[in-house]
Amino acid sequence: MSSSSEKQTKIAIRNLYKIFGADPESVLEDVKAGMSKDDLMEQHRHVLGLNNINVDIKQGDITVMMGLSGSGKSTLIRHLNRLIEPTAGEVELDGVNIVDLNEKELRRLRREEMSMVFQHFALLPHRTVLENAGMALDVRGVPKSEFESEANKWLDRVGLQGLGEQYPHQLSGGMQQRVGIARALTSNSPVMLMDEAFSALDPLIRTDMQDLLLDLQEELKKTVVFISHDLDEALKLADHLVILKDGYVVQQGEPQEILMRPNDPYIVDFISDINRARVLRVRSVMEKTQDIPENVAGEIDYDDTLESVIALSAGETGLTFVVTRHGAQVGVLKMTDLVKALVPTAAAQDGMRSSAA
């Protein structure tokens, strides 16, 4: 995975505000001056949806926006293709502010630049699987005889070979969502918006869909914006993670960085129950050095999980491993440092306060 900072910004969200109510403009300055979501509702009967959002979505990344119900994540993704109009701010796609687009330009953007995968599939029940998969091209005026091969190609890729003449009601939920993904891929749009795309699925099917997305992304390098309320899912998928609360960004960055250095008690609570060994990577814990230590126990990859290193060490805490990337040494990892990294942030902070007292 290349650093997101080296990649071009595909979508730039700048100073974005959304206020729901009778006269949003009249209370915008109050919000900009710091009025809280609760006070805005109590004093003005308006709902603060988004509060000064600034996010760079990099080309070829999966950017996951997550938070609890009411955090603003679904409101935010709907601003990217202007299904919702902002109260203030800009959303730039390749340097063009989509807030300024006219109706015709906006239709073209939704048909050709951004595809969307919904939580509840949004398939047309009276159309076949093939016709649903080819819908974006059909809307553009491409005849079925021409889009059929493209739609079948992507149906095959998502594991639905031979099911093109079936109807959505004949498929399971997981298979219907695969049709939704095939539809997004058939459109050939560079940006995929996925709003809680897997949350309606059973856990095992959900895991399969996550793996499918990662496999496709490895090859296609789409710019994906994925909405989720599930931290494990977010950590598995995200190149860039944006955590929202009450309509504002609490913290954003590389998921490993957020896990190791949460900047807010809300984030600490959010990540307190995860299996840190399963999601933390060697690169987040290692010491960067080309020096070779004495008594090396073996080599590990900088992207290995800490869980795999624990298994390799058989529980021995005195071991030291050389960390490699593409065959070259980039650091060392002491098992003692690994064990420290497994202590949840809140517990570590409590321990530090206790020892200081």
Task: Enumerate the strands of the largest sheet in spatial order, edge to edge or round the barrel.
Answer: 6-7-8-3-9-10
Largest sheet descriptor: 6 strands, mixed
Approximate shape:
globular
Specify the helix fraction band: 40-55%
How large a portion of the residues is in β-strands, by DSSP E? Answer: 15-25%
Instruction: Give the number of domains.
Output: 2
Structural class of the helices, strands and pairings?
Answer: alpha/beta
Number of helices: 17
Q: What's the architecture of the largest domain, going by CATH?
A: 3-Layer(aba) Sandwich
List low-pLDDT spans. Answer: 347-357
For the record, the CATH class of the largest domain is Alpha Beta
Count of β-strands: 14
Q: State the end-to-end CA separation.
A: 43 Å
- In angstroms, what is the radius of gyration? 23 Å
